[in-house]
Design brief:
Layout lengths: L6 H13 L16 E13 L2 E16 L2 E14 L5 E4 L2 E10 L7 E4 L2 E4 L14 E12 L2 E11 L8 E12 L3 E10 L12 E13 L3 E13 L3 E12 L21 H5 L2
Antiparallel strand pairs: 1-2, 1-14, 2-3, 3-4, 3-5, 5-6, 5-7, 6-8, 7-8, 8-9, 9-10, 10-11, 11-12, 12-13, 13-14
Length: about 280
């Protein structure tokens, strides 16, 4: 199997960085508020001994199309730099998904949601920038907040029928805390199975990472960051850096101070969520 063909699992590995409660690998079940929007401009990276894969610049948009339902798209530029080989750059596979929350959080009960998506084969397989076939991710996520603390996690299955790729299980759990008015910091443990002989990660890996948000204007404009490394299995390093905006129906002065204004609920403090 050619080394360039190993890019795709880097993109699979980075896919949680695209849609998962950015900047983390683990996602949460909370969709965007009805008639509200989220936008991310970001870069992310994944590296093993086979090479490095990057998304960036990449653009993500989420829309609260219905109550408890979020439509999702990511359009990335992708780079693959295989160890000992030439690099490639171009459009990557475009991600499309739907997040649906079917149980709301209460004082004594966590919230639950699903976030299935497909990766459309828009990137060049010959250049190592895409899978060449559609693939799918089917997770279940759960979340609970208490005071300034929030914890969430879940598991799912990744389905990929491309040559040299295999289906595998993934799972993660995260704990984060609001710190004052400007920071939310957290850490997670994330596991993914082996991606197959054509994958950047040919063996399973468990990663430990840390990151969070700095609120330039809470919660409407944020800087997001994360970095981590494997603690067992195949050696792997991941990172994320991005900007986040949110706005929607009912917001006033949406372009105030040069950035989009805040929405009401999904990125409220953990203390406010747990009080509902």
């Amino acid at each position: 199997m050619c080394r360039r063909g190993k890019l795709f699992f880097a993109i699979c590995s980075l896919t949680p960085l695209l849609h998962a409660g950015p900047p983390f690998l683990t996602d949460d079940p909370e969709p965007v508020d009805f008639q509200h929007f989220e936008a991310y401009l970001f870069s992310s990276a994944d590296a093993t001994h086979f090479g490095q894969a990057y998304f960036g610049p990449a653009f993500e948009m989420n829309w609260g199309a219905l109550p408890d339902t979020q439509l999702h798209i990511v359009i990335p530029a992708a780079t693959f730099a295989p160890t000992g080989g030439p690099s490639a750059f171009g459009i990557g596979d475009i991600e499309l998904g739907v997040k649906y929350r079917f149980i709301h959080e209460t004082k004594h009960r966590p919230e639950f949601g699903i976030f299935p998506f497909l990766e459309a084969p828009t990137g060049s397989f010959a250049a190592g920038l895409g899978n060449g076939r559609p693939w799918y991710r089917l997770p279940l996520w759960v979340q609970k907040s208490e005071g300034p603390w929030t914890t969430y996690g879940g598991a799912g299955e990744q389905l990929n029928s491309a040559p040299g790729m295999t289906n595998f299980t993934f799972a993660g759990w995260l704990l984060q805390r609001d710190i004052g008015k400007k920071w939310t910091l957290g850490s997670e443990v994330y596991y993914h199975g082996a991606g197959g002989p054509a994958a950047l990660s040919t063996r399973a890996s468990t990663l430990l990472d840390a990151g969070g948000y700095y609120y330039i204007h809470k919660p409407g404009f944020q800087i997001l960051f994360m970095g981590g490394h494997s603690v067992s299995g195949q050696a792997e390093t991941v990172a994320y850096l991005g900007l986040y905006w949110t706005w929607g129906k009912g917001d006033k002065d949406a372009l105030s101070s040069g950035f989009l204004h805040e929405r009401a609920v999904p990125y409220e403090t953990a203390a406010a969520r747990s009080a509902r």
